[in-house]
Amino acid sequence: MWSAILTLGVTAVSATNLFVSDYGGTINTFSLTASNGTYNLENIFSTTDCAPNPSWLTIDSNRGLLFCMNEGLETVNGSLSSFTINTNGSLTHIKNATAISGPVNGVIYGEPAGQRAIALAHYTGSAVTSWLLEGGGHFELNQNIPFTLSGPTPNPARQDAPHEHEAILDPTGQYILVPDLGADLVRVFSWDIETLKLKELSPLKAAAGSGPRHAAFWNPYAVASENSTTYMYLVAELASSVTSYAVTYLPNGGGLSFSQVYNSTTYGLLNLPEGNAPAEVTVTPDNRFLVISNRNNTSFNLPEPDGSVIKSDSLSTFQLQDDGTLVWHQLWPSGGFYPRQFSIDKTGSLVAVGHQYDQNIVILARDVATGLIGEPLARMKVPGNTTCIQWDE
Ligand SMILES: *[C@@H]1O[C@H](CO)[C@@H](O)[C@H](O)[C@H]1NC(C)=O
Ligand SMILES: *[C@@H]1O[C@H](CO)[C@@H](O)[C@H](O)[C@H]1NC(C)=O
Ligand SMILES: *[C@@H]1O[C@H](CO)[C@@H](O)[C@H](O)[C@H]1NC(C)=O
Ligand SMILES: *[C@@H]1O[C@H](CO)[C@@H](O)[C@H](O)[C@H]1NC(C)=O
Ligand SMILES: *[C@@H]1O[C@H](CO)[C@@H](O)[C@H](O)[C@H]1NC(C)=O
Ligand SMILES: *[C@@H]1O[C@H](CO)[C@@H](O)[C@H](O)[C@H]1NC(C)=O
Ligand SMILES: *[C@@H]1O[C@H](CO)[C@@H](O)[C@H](O)[C@H]1NC(C)=O
Ligand SMILES: *[C@@H]1O[C@H](CO)[C@@H](O)[C@H](O)[C@H]1NC(C)=O
Ligand SMILES: *[C@@H]1O[C@H](CO)[C@@H](O)[C@H](O)[C@H]1NC(C)=O
To answer: How many domains does the chain have?
Structure first.
């Protein structure tokens, strides 16, 4: 039952912090505590230093830093803000720098113990930018790379311009990949090891009109190297599809080549509901499953103890196969409307979901052995439309 309180036989009290951003302008820290199988969320810190429209949080856990992208929904520019993470879960603001509009995601790259930078994907501004990290949360602009469309697109409403939606590293840390929802591409970049300036290589061309949004890599034997088997799973928002590619490393840092091995809707064997718009995709920490969030078709009605009903979108789980294909596993309610993003904790037993339209976060149980997502353990309102939720671990 949705309303049941789960008892997991846990007696010790444990606490983990979560950082949550929302379009209303705040970043909040929530403390999740578990005591005798009962979970509780408490809001322990809030800041508006990434206002007006925080869209994404990139955590640098080794250095205790948090980078926040302000999308700037109604301003000319967006911005990049940095914070130090304090042991009590609060954030100390370091810097807010004006940027090309619409940053929605960011990834840190470079030498792990040397010079590093953060690359941002700009949705509205049709660009990728790079910022050199100078320690202690200080940073400076390194490069602006704007893009234009080369011709007409199948979906002029959503594909009026290039729309960079995410920036991720390949498993070896040599390349940055940027799904472009407007141009139906996954752009690939390498960089100069001295300057960390990005250089665009040959992209992956996704299906016309599919609208690539987010992607995740997988090494079936959990070994990341140029010579290991590597797959990439691309979620396209407009086609509501998940496409798997076998990835080959070209010699001498020359880029990546992709060969499609699987494609289906994000509903797997089930009928795809009208209006579905998938958002986030991740490989689970146990390295055996792929989880995708489905937004905009609230297919589940969840009864509440007071007789009311929660309309809920869903999470899809697929089993990862050694040949890169996917086997349908589970469709499960995410616990609210419009799960823009979710994060799984490092044990794989808790899924934190951010619901953009319900302005809340929901923690779901997950059975690591079976890969099945389960009951909600805790739920909390946030002050604005939820955009990103990250575990501090
Ligand atoms: C722990 O939870 C169980 C099941 O709800 C309950 O029977 C027990 O009394 C609880 N123990 C404590 C110490 O609260
Ligand atoms: C950060 O910079 C952006 C872009 O200049 C600006 O719109 C925003 O108000 C700034 N945010 C804060 C909290 O100072
Ligand atoms: C949390 O830690 C920061 C930095 O040490 C400090 O400034 C702040 O007062 C602390 N907050 C609370 C509630 O203790
Ligand atoms: C702010 O936006 C304007 C208009 O798009 C752009 O020309 C300018 O470069 C942006 N400023 C920064 C610092 O990126
Ligand atoms: C990958 O294989 C090539 C050719 O056998 C070899 O030169 C290279 O060192 C290998 N790379 C790694 C990281 O093992
Ligand atoms: C994958 O499937 C989706 C949904 O059926 C379809 O729209 C898309 O064109 C397919 N993509 C490829 C690359 O075959
Ligand atoms: C959800 O999908 C079903 C089945 O395709 C459709 O009948 C319904 O209108 C859709 N609802 C919304 C809100 O798009
Ligand atoms: C949500 O679904 C409705 C009804 O099917 C559709 O008109 C709308 O474009 C969808 N929104 C998104 C963001 O996909
Ligand atoms: C915020 O959520 C409301 C529904 O609660 C929705 O109508 C609105 O479009 C959302 N705005 C943004 C910017 O997410």
So the answer is: 1
